[in-house]
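<goal> How does this chain fold?
<body> The protein record starts here
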Amino acid sequence: MKTLILTGSPRKEGHTAKMAAFLAGRLQGEVEMLSLDHRTDIMPCRDCRYCFQNDHCCIQDPMQEIYQKLDQADRIVFAAPVYFYGIPGSMKAVLDRLQVYWAAIVRGEKPPVTRTGGILLVGGAPESPEQFQGAIQTFRYMLDDLGVFCAGAVTMGGSDKKGLQDRPDVKDALIRLADSLNKPV
């Protein structure tokens, strides 16, 4: 089993990284954590629709490596902080380039659901019921386009005051997510 955890946090030692590392330590098989922060070398999607007729993007940049990693992973996890109820720009730029996978669906080539994945989100604001809903929905659609069943989302609000070390409830949720990801689809 090979897991790819894509992180979108600018803080290498921040709450998102700590949640991702905690999860990674409980996953079976090979785990690769790939930071998308500061990936200014990835061009934005131009909505040129090239991928509507072709199985790849016409833009040749480092995103090609990310496509390859996504295609080779058995499990995919998106991990990001939520700033003002949205995901960071570096992560958003990569998600926009996942248009290639949506275009496959448009071409009638939707991949079967053969893989599992998850979502990790952190927010500094005090927790509220709808704090993470927009980001969760975005990532669920992305996983679906990739042919990945979303085993769950783990969120941690209030990180301006408390971190993972203070949140046994979040640790328990990460352990449950790891257990789900370790099971075959």
User: Anything to note?
Assistant: The CA atoms of residues 40 and 52 lie 25 Å apart.
